């Protein structure tokens, strides 16, 4: 009888525990972390004309579990030494993910700092700072070009996309590179032909077979193409 009483007692305790745990709600801890900032443009370089600042703000690594939507965001463009503020302002954000496209006025040629800040409703803050450079021109140079490595051949800026430069040119078999501002401070090269993405980190020379090509170069992304031309 004593054993039977103890068995009933244990069952009662277990039943009470189960009831206390089953409250009809899953005990899931919602994810929360500071906002994330993903910059699309300008990543590295842009042309000396107005452009669109493109950035995505996201609250937390997993927006589906976020419990603190975005509250505010702002940007500031300063000279490289932070001495001069060229432009700044608020950016409109809402929910847990917001993609922003903000027109920015033309900047003089030079290096700049872009500061982006995002705050969510839990008052968690994320701040990112990146460097970009406004360039005045793009050109192609190399042993495959008519002027060799001694003198660059200027390219023409697109009327519809200020980051794109083109030229139609007759090349000898040799090598080429793209560069900006008539100097070697910034140059783009890759080992691929007829298309590639030039690296500014001392990239290799582009191997060019002899021929006449329409050359297209994006000064913002480093992407280029050589298309046979008549």
- SSE pattern: HEEEEEEEEEEEEEEEEEE
| CA-based shape | elongated
Number of strands: 18
Distance between the ends: 105 Å
Biggest pleated sheet: 5 strands, mixed
**Percent of sequence in beta strands:** over 45%
Low-confidence stretches: 1-6, 8-29
Number of helices: 1
Give the integer mean of the pLDDT values. Answer: 87
Strand arrangement across the biggest beta sheet: 2-8-7-4-5
The helical percent reads: under 10%
Structural class: mainly beta
Which value, in Å, is the CA radius of gyration? 29 Å
Tell me what you see in this structure.
With 230 residues, this protein is mainly β. The chain contains one helix and 18 strands. The strands form four sheets. A five-stranded mixed beta sheet has the order 2-8-7-4-5, with no helix packed on it. Strand 11 (156-157) and strand 12 form a beta hairpin. The longest helix is centred in the N-terminal third of the chain and has 20 residues, at 2-21. It starts with a helix and ends with a strand. Mean pLDDT is 87; it is low at 1-6 and 8-29.
């Amino acid at each position: 009888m004593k054993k039977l009483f103890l068995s009933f007692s244990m069952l009662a305790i277990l039943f009470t525990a189960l009831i206390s745990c089953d409250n009809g709600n899953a005990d899931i801890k919602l994810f929360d972390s500071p906002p994330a900032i993903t910059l699309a443009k300008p990543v590295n370089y842009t042309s000396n004309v107005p452009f669109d600042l493109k950035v995505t703000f996201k609250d937390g690594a997993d927006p589906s579990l976020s419990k603190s939507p975005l509250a505010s965001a702002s940007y500031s463009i300063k000279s490289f030494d932070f001495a001069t503020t060229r432009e700044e302002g608020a950016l409109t954000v809402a929910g847990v993910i917001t993609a922003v496209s903000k027109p920015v006025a033309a900047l003089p040629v030079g290096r700049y700092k872009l500061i982006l800040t995002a705050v969510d409703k839990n008052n968690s803050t994320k701040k990112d700072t990146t460097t970009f450079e406004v360039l005045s021109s793009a050109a192609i140079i190399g042993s495959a070009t008519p002027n060799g490595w001694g003198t660059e051949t200027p390219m023409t800026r697109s009327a519809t996309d200020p980051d794109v430069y083109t030229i139609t040119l007759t090349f000898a078999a040799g090598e080429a590179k793209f560069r900006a501002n008539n100097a070697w401070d910034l140059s783009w090269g890759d080992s691929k032909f007829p298309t590639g993405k030039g690296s500014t980190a001392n990239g290799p020379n582009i191997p060019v077979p002899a021929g006449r090509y329409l050359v297209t170069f994006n000064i913002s992304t480093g992407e280029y193409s050589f298309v046979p031309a008549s």
